[in-house]
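Pair request: fold both.
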Amino acid sequence: MDSILNFIKLEESDGLLLYWLKEILIAVVVFAFFYALARLLRYILITWGPRFTSFTKTDLDDRILLRITPPASFLVVCAGLYYAVRTLPLPEKAHLLASGLLFIIIVVILTNIAYRVTDELLNWYASRLSEQVSNGLNRQLIPLVEKLISIFLIGTALIITLKHFNYDILSLVTALGIGSLAIGMAAKDTLANMISGFTLMIDRPFRIGDRIQLTGGQLGDVIDIGLRSTKIKTMDNTFLIIPNSELCNTILINMAFPDVRAKGRINLGVAYGSDIEAVKKLLVDTAMEIPDVLRDPAPEGYFVSFGESALNMALFFWVENYTNVFSVTDRINSLIVKRFQENGINIPYPTRTVLVEKD
């Protein structure tokens, strides 16, 4: 009887051993298949990928392919290991622990691949933007977009992981929504300035280095466009710090748009009886004597109106850069006084004639 029992136990142990060997063999075959698939994918991406990307005009696809090749092949290996573990008849806790750990690794790899692709896209866009306009926009905008994308990818990976382990993410999302609402209500002014700053970076009504004039008459050069405020350096070398929400809701003049050329104007009056055509020609010739005055478009002189004591004239001229308007105006004014004196043209003072009648 004992020998029969021993024989039965031996048969059961042999059957169990064969069963485990069979399951392990299946797991090894599954893993070997995915490992070979990973090697094939790596070979295709390294050998054949550049041949297809060479047909494009940019190097963006080459850079993306170079960065995703290592994690993509590693992802296939981890996927094979994940399915191989799932085929093994492990205890429930060990099975959940092993498969759960591999699932987390796979989610991390996928998140890393997505981040690498978006990072290359943003770097490529920033390089193109800096070639077109060197105004520091990529220094302001690209890091902000990278942070927002990173937060989104991490949040998505966390939600997928929690969902895989059957955690109730609805309560988490609800709590995050209520918390975000409370924070938004408490910091609405700060958030308004941040959103306005993001709008200024996208819409670009002005750029760093542009000279702008506000409705209040303040004039200055834009030094920095931050998330909360914009810094403007005025003509008297002081900093004007304005919240972005105010700049988004106000009317301003951008003197550097559409280009940095600027138009100057000089108003003056000549005595009644002066030769108007000669005065206009003299104004234009005087402006042409200044080297910084553009020849195209050429200066123009106009007879504007009849004044109480003088004939009102105007001289319009263009300079290459708006920063030169004041200095060029000063030089033209000084030369006009000299030329008028040489040609006998008077700039009259306002006069009044008072008649006194006696009874």
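--- second member of the pair ---
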Amino acid sequence: MESEAFDAVDLGLLHALQVDGRAPFSRIARVLSVSDRTVARRFARLAATGAVRVTGVTDSGRIGGAEWVVRLRVRPHRADELAHALAARPDTAWVTVLSSGAEIVCVFRTAAAESAPLSALARHSDILGVDAQRMVRHLTRRRWSGRTSALDDDQVAALRPAQPVASAPVALGDLDRRMLPRLAADGRIGYPNLAGALGWSESAVRRRLDELRRARVLGFDVEVDAALLGYSFQCVLWLTVAPHHLATVGAALIESPEIAFAGAITGPHNIIAVAVCRDADAVFDYVVDRVGALPGVTRLDTAAVTRYAKRAAPALIPR
């Protein structure tokens, strides 16, 4: 699919789904001033080509879990195979191969009292080194602007779902443990199909999904290849920041339109971020002129992303 295939309706649809991944097509159609059929047809086309995917994303912290950022130094000729295997694991949430081909970065989700499976990884003959750091806090609370710039404030307000409510961490039940993986694979699966697959009533499934959303356990994200939107260069940034500057640097990063994700982690690099830019020149300008100039940044390492094997949802493993 070529980037020019994304017209104003497509971009509006992407933005709408990022506001509410389960918004009915009829509501999106009203906001975009097009027909229901047009919205449904556009989404079906984008989904069929693999250009767009709506995924259900679970907040580990809200269910008493933890996230670990794991850097694997690997044999370059085995990187793709290893990334594929990591993406197939149910405990990984993000897997990417970096430009050297000798490094894979992934995020493991575990119970709070557990760590990433370092021993098993270190024993693998093609993994030459392992480093794991705990994700302390997600800094990014907004969506990457490259896919959320098509709608105005009134349109966003018309789409925004009910606001979440503060609550204690949520204990998951059997229905949740069966439902969440299916929503991760297809965030827009219809209630009748979801209920049928789970063996629960549609009303129970609908009610529990709404409860999980309002408790901030479940959110929805839109996976889209940034290159199709004209952004051809993505890279991971590892920052070492003086502790008393962490809040300031974090705030500056999350306000940058280039940043798709930023998080505070343990270890010598205490911030990880993902930057999405139009080309290599734009990355250079952003890193040198803006990030490198932030007070408190004492070290900045970058690595271009070669490919994503997994973002947040289960990988689409070829059969």
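Observation on the second member. Residues 36-48 form the longest helix (13 residues).
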